[in-house]
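Hi F.,

I've been meaning to write this up properly since the lab meeting, where we talked about keeping a consistent format for the predictions we share between groups. The idea is simple: the sequence comes first, exactly as it goes in, then the structure tokens exactly as they come out, then a line or two of notes. No screenshots and no reformatting. I'm using this chain as the first example so we have something concrete to point to.
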Amino acid sequence: MSISGWERKYAQIIEEFDYNEEDDEKSAKLLNSLLKSKPSIEKLKSRIENRTVFVVGAGPSVSSSIHILKKFQNVTKIVADGAAYALIKNNVEPDIIVTDLDGCDEYINNIKDEIVIVHAHGDNYDKLKLVTKIKNCIGTTETKPFGNIYNFGGFTDGDRCVFLAAYFHAKKIILFGMDFGNVIGEYSKKTVQNKLLKIKKMKKAKDLLEWLATGTKIKFYTTSSQIKGFTKINYNDIKNIIRSEF
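Output, unedited:
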């Protein structure tokens, strides 16, 4: 089961980026075979449902948010791939890491009790064996879910974090380091072979978040760039937003 309407969005992504759905399915089948047991979705759900959650992307502004994230250790932090390294090296522990394994080299050996959502797609087939190093791993796909593989929605690591939080009915979602501009953050990826493609993907991710923000009771906020359907806030606003929960 995935977020209502996702199948249509996925079909648009396949057409727009000229992807092969069969390649996505092939990777999903491999990931399913590597995940030997059914993951604990209840544990994942308990960290998100009816809570305020922070979603941390790997955009340029993530570095400036570290001091704020440190102040709210009790807030669930869903972190996109390379941004996990930014947090871990600054002694901020992610609760959930969302990754397609492209930027995990710097932090994979430092993963402890974090839940890691590993996404299978046509371009990361050869990297999926890395999941054998991860203790609490949940597999995802953009195609039809099956076996140990889920579909929570989303395209890039960053927007998949937000879709995950929405899927499990977070009360409020606050974004950090989700800039969606023309500058690629230092934690986004070690090497970007096609900058224009990367920027195109970020634009698509932003469009998907704007779609997600419609027709839901979840309150969306961003400390980064303006996103339609998200309230733009400053770091000083965060305490008041979450005050009622702690």
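Notes:
The chain has one domain: 6-245.
The chain has a mean pLDDT of 91.

If this format works for you, I'll send the rest the same way.

G.
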